[in-house]
Structures are given as C-alpha cells and as structure tokens.
Predict the structure.
Amino acid sequence: IMLAAAQKLGAGLSTFGLAGAGVGIGFIFGSLILGTARNPSLKDDMFRYAILGFALTEAIALFALMIAFLILF
Amino acid sequence: NIIMLSPLEQFQVIPVIPLRFGAIDLSITNVTIIMGVMLFIVVLFTQALKSKDGTYKIIPNSWQIVVESIYKLILSLVTDNIQSKEAQRFFPLVFTVFFGILIINLTGLVPYSFTLTSHLIVTFAVSLSVFIGINIICARKHGMKMFSLFLPPGTSIGLAFLLVPIEFISYIFKPISLSIRLFANMMAGHTLLKVIAGFAFALVTASGGLFIVHLVPLLILIPLFGLELGVALIQSFVFSVLISIYLNDALNLH
C-alpha cells in the first residue's frame, strides 16, 4: 500500500517539469508572431522553424511526462 | 464483461497465431497484422497511382498530388539542410524514414489499432541504425579527423578540456533523444486519449444523473484527436529534419 501511495505521489510531483516546457513553447510562438510582424514572409521559413522548435520543446515536456508514467505504472 | 485495466494496456503485444520453434518465437501477433496493413498502405500510395507502363500520370489526380507534395517537401528539406555536393544521395533515406513514420503514426490513430512507434524498441532501432550509418559515413569521408567534431573551432586550450567531454556526451545523446522524442510523443498521446475515454466509459456505467455528463469527455476527445493528428504529422517531420541536420554535421565538420 505504501508503494502504491508513493507511486502516485512521485508521478504527481514529476509533472512539475512541464512548467518550463510550457514557458518554452509560449516563447517560441510569441517570437513567431513578433518575427511575422517585422517581416511577413511567413509561409516560407518562419512557420516551419516554429513547428520544428515546438516539436523539440514538446519533447522535453514529454521526457518529464514519461518519467511520471514510468513511476506510476 | 469489459474489465478496465490500466491505460497502458493498449500497448500490449498479443499473439494471435502462436508459432514457437523452441527458443525462436515467430508468432503472428497483432503487431504483425498492423505492420502488414502499413506495408499495404505504403505500397498502395506509391505504386497504385501508376498507369500501365509504370509511369505516373502527367495530369495528377488528388492522391498523386499528395505524394508529389511529400516528395517536394523532403527534397527541399534535404537540399536546404545538407550543404554538400552529394546531398541528393541521401534523399531516399530521408524520404523512406519520413514516409514510413508518417504512415505508422497515422495508422495508429484508427481506433483499436496499434501504433508501432509507441514502442521504444521500434524507434530506437530506426534511430540507432541511422546513427551508426551516419558514423560510418563520417568516418569514411574524414578518416581520423572525425574526432574534430567534438572540438568547436576557436576555443582556447583550457576551455577545450572542459568542452570535449560535454560535446561527446551530447553526441552520444543524439540518437537516444531522437528515439525518445518520437516514442514519448506517441505513447503519451495515446495514453491521454485512453484516459479520457476511460472517464467517458466510467461515466456511462455510472448511476443516476451522471449519465448525461458522459458527453463531456467525448467532446473533449474530439480536439484531442485533432492534436494527436497534428502531433503524428509533426513528429515524423521533425524526425526527418533532425536526421538531415545530423547528416549535415557529419558531412561538413563544424
């Protein structure tokens, strides 16, 4: 019983890492909007780099979530 | 009766036709069936559009536009990222990886299907084999000077002692992070869908007035499915972009 309780506690605590990832992807898309406002060549490169940056930052968030799942089950 | 096990239960490999030969296990599992479906879809996409003498049509129908736009996307990706005269030699590799991972991710979205890339062994196999291939390419082109990968230009000698182990560790981490990124995205996405669907299921079999509320998780499920579709496409793209960037790093030592 202690193990199951500790598992749930650990899984809950390890989702704290998602906060940094949330800030990160907000920053990326914020800079996408600013860059588009300066120079509207949007469809070519900027949107593609934004999606690439979003996927890479999301990967960090999912590393943390993966640890949570590994502890939980 | 349906027993609600944990949401990770959807990733189990279930043998459908068990065939064991002593220590060798060649059973037909649900994974094998899904792999056959995926192979069928890939062959269908690339071969069934051709006319009788094996050429694509000049005026494309809609499916051919899809294949041609994927071709153009990967070609621009390869020629932009790999700054080398022989950049187009790596186009079949990147196209195969991209198309394969795209079809695997998309067939995993169908309900009751199985996502191959949500198993770490699958993504790690692809990522490790590409990494070993990149190392062999780099060693063949640059010989012993390959170790200058770990020393960025213009660093002083004291900083170099600190920087080389860090660069080495980050180099080793590259295939691991590539595979874990795809694996974690796929597995977390599917687990999230399963958890919300489990909420909806628990509310359906609940008593009294809670029965109406079971529509709420189902309505949440619809945008989550859209997000999952987006993640499937984006992650396969990111995988192939990173492979071409690593190829660029290997061919032109920074």
About this structure: Chain A touches chain B at residues 51-52, 54-56, 58-59, 62-63, 65-66, 69, 73 (CB under 8 Å). Residues 17 and 26 of chain A are 15 Å apart (CA to CA). The longest helix of chain A spans residues 42-72.
